[in-house]
Amino acid sequence: FWGKKKDTEEDQAIGGSKGGLSTKIDATCDALGNPTSFHLTPGQDHDLEGADALMEHLTQAKAVLADKAYDADERVRKKLLKSGCEAIIPSKKNRLNPVEYD
Length: 102
Description:
This protein has helices at residues 6-12, 47-54, 73-82; strands spanning 15-17, 20-29, 35-42, 63-65, 86-88. It has three helices and five strands. It has a three-stranded antiparallel beta sheet with strand order 1-2-3, with helices on both faces. A two-stranded parallel sheet has the order 4-5. It is globular, with a radius of gyration of 16 Å. The mean pLDDT is 83. Strand 4, helix 3 (73-82) and strand 5 (86-88) form a beta-alpha-beta unit. The longest helix is centred in the last third of the chain and has 10 residues, at 73-82. The chain is an alpha+beta fold.
């Protein structure tokens, strides 16, 4: 790992961290739980990196259910609202004005 070129690491989506090598899998699924798309990122990347890549696949979704790691106004909530999609995402505990969700 440490001897490889940087572009090779990114192509493989393997990230080095204190805990070792890791990869995150961000995925979307339909209402029945069937996978519709996925994106790999290095383990040290923020979850929003995967969300950015998956947003283009949500063109027909009426609602998106995600965990609080995706609580971002500009990068997630506004993009979903523009496409007519409801964001069902809990607010992070450090948010000054928590967003209500069902």
